[in-house]
């Protein structure tokens, strides 16, 4: 017998079945306390050697939105400006400096120090996974999300991560979506089109 029971169909629908990518938002704020709760959930998702490279700036204020505005592609401008929060998900290019604390049972720092290709690959992959955890955690908390990659990364980095240590990966709008503005869900591949069991 499994040690944990599966989530209910209602919970699964909230996180997956009814979860959508939103571009239109209701004018309902997202509290700082809820963002803290969100982080406390998604930080628990697994990463390579517990490296946890994601670094996030939650853009909420009108001033911060104006700073982000020139970094956006025209097609994403309206959605970002309307969203209560936009998370700039980046990755720490020196994440390995935290490994003595995060992965203390071996010298994992030595795996990465002085190896820029491995650092970049690991940081980008794992921060992408962490962004996925953020989206699922947000849905579990009753929030909606709109992840996007249509932005100028170099300009965003210069504006929000000026010391060069953190590099942006993607944006995730967070709030309470306007379901009336959704288009029909796009199709997904069938199991046999995407998977093989060997």
TrEMBL record:
Assigned EC number: 1.-.-.-
Q: Which cofactor does it need?
A: FMN
Q: Which SUPFAM superfamilies match?
A: FMN-dependent nitroreductase-like
- Example GO molecular function: oxidoreductase activity
**Transmembrane regions listed in the UniProt entry:** none
Keyword check for NAD, yes or no. Answer: yes
Q: Which family does it belong to?
A: Belongs to the nitroreductase family. HadB/RutE subfamily.
Indicate the segments forming the Nitroreductase domain, all copies. Answer: 20-160
Key word Flavoprotein present in the record?
yes
Name the chain's protein: Putative NADH dehydrogenase/NAD(P)H nitroreductase C882_1267
The UniProt keyword set, sorted, is: Flavoprotein, FMN, NAD, NADP, Oxidoreductase
Under the heading CDD domains, the entry gives: RutE-like (cd02148)
State the species of origin: Caenispirillum salinarum AK4
Source domain of life: Bacteria
Listed Gene3D superfamilies: NADH Oxidase
Q: Which NCBIfam families does this chain map to?
A: PRK05365.1 (NF003768)
